[in-house]
Amino acid sequence: MAKAPSEEEMLKAVERYVSRPGVTAHLTVPGAAALSWQSVLECRIVRSIERRTERAMRVKGKRSAIAGRPTYTDLDAWPVTPPDDPGTARRVELVREGSLAEEPCGDCVDGKQECRGCAGRGGRRCARHVECDVCQGGPDACWECDGTGHPRTRRARPQRPRTEGAQERAACKRCRRPDVACPKCLGERQLKCPTCDGTGRAVCGTCKGAKRLRHEKCGGTGRFTVWTEGVITHTPTPDGIKPVYPPLTRSKADGAGRWHTAVLSSPSEELPEFLEDDQVKQVAPLLAEKEGEVRRRVELRCLPLARVVVRTDPDRVYYAFPGGVDIEVIGRPSRQRLTALAWAAVAVAALVAVVSLTVLR
User: Fold this and answer.
1) In the Cβ-directed half-sphere of 284, how many Cα atoms lie within 13 Å?
2) How much is the pTM?
3) 302 confidence band (pLDDT: 50, 70, 90)
4) Contacts of 98 (CB under 8 A, 6+ apart)
């Protein structure tokens, strides 16, 4: 694996970057430049954590699929191979030997319960007749007999004058006089109940007359399947360190940088030599083995990156890092320069505002 460039190599790369025709910088001379390492570290960890649990299960109906599951006597001793990729989730469901059984449902008979809406009668009592909704069951049911069947006089009453849009009258069923009765009830004041059709018994709206309903708790089967379930899970658990880049360097560093990489798969593996001492102190605590850990993948990436400040050019800062062929250099305004530019922008904006107010006055 290629070693990280030395400080001298980094300074020479910055020399080439800042030099221009006729002017050559000499940054390796003591005091000409200040170099500090700000290497970028990325650490991605994914562990496969195994958990083994038992629980009592009770499901409605007969479950033939349960009988086809593997059985165990000691869940902790049951062998299972962890996934090759620790990022893969896995769930294994087992049945404890001798625990699988069926039991009847104690709240129903053959999967059915008595309808609560009608108490198992299939219906309810109902009034045979209802008041006519046209004449409201009053005297207007018949202009001659008031719906009683007995005319008030032996002679026919004169017909009442009709108003425009008035409803036609009909012959009364009770007194037999024509053109005097309510056209809907024909003088009888009431109609057959639409719910029971005049029978006096209405069908239960809940069970539709069946008297018994499907018991939802047992799914209409009248039984339950019970067993003790053992579950073994492998759950991916991520961890790590996100890379921190100097300002305005991420895009080029990711694309052009020659990163040092390593992949570890065991807690006993040693950390790669390309890590700096401070980086080792960051990574080492994260690599401690976790409870239930059965697989791991640790991906390490490191980009040696130096920050260089040239004494004769304090308004800029330079970042150097190894690239695909040679050392890459990025030049950026220094923080002090950016602050000065920001204040200058504020001052210009304030000046423009003052001038504008003066003109408006």
Assistant:
1) 8
2) 0.67
3) very high
4) none
